[in-house]
Structures are given as C-alpha cells and as structure tokens.
Design a protein that fits this description.
Helices cover 57% and strands 0% of the residues. By secondary structure, it is mainly α. The chain is extended, with a radius of gyration of 14 Å.
Length: 58
Amino acid sequence: MGKTNHLSIRTDKELHDKLQYVAAYEGRSMSGQILYLIQSCIRRFEQENGPIPVEGEK
C-alpha cells in the first residue's frame, strides 16, 4: 500500500457506537473496520465497472 494518508470523518454518537460494536464483533479496530468497508466498496465497484486508474501507475 505504500505511503499512508489520514482521513477524518464526523459522525453522530449513535452511528459511532454502532460502528464500534460491529468492529468489535468482527474482531477489528474501528480504523480496521472502516478500511475493510472502503476496500469492499472499491472491490465491488471495480467488479462492476473495471479497474480504477491510480495516478502514478502504468
């Protein structure tokens, strides 16, 4: 994955608490759960629409 970037989001308490619950249930940290969800979304998108070009890749 190389260099990492920071992403900050705002949520209400209920959404935060529910995500924390799901992450714990899945054995992940909240950060790990969010990364898992983002990666799942990208995989699904690419399966339906083809690879997403990444700047700097050939």
